[in-house]
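Now for a specimen:

…
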Amino acid sequence: MQTETLADGRKFRVSGDAEVVLSIQRMLAGHATTMNGKGGWKFTFETASDGGALVVKPPKATDLAKLDGVGHIGILTMGMHRQEHHWMIAKGMHPH
């Protein structure tokens, strides 16, 4: 996992071996779709051959500190998500 600093957000790149690439992509894409716009936060997904990236842009520049504090794993816990939801994304069973 790598974090790229953007002027107005962060890009969290996640990569893995061939057998986990689709799970990474489904998880990141599902989270971006589910969370985009919630509380003014912008979430987008970018695909890569070895995984993908979750691009997160908070509504205010002052929220960048919060984003840095929680990081990639913390950002995945935002919202009213259940572990079942993430398990379904990883298995390809989620509608997103």
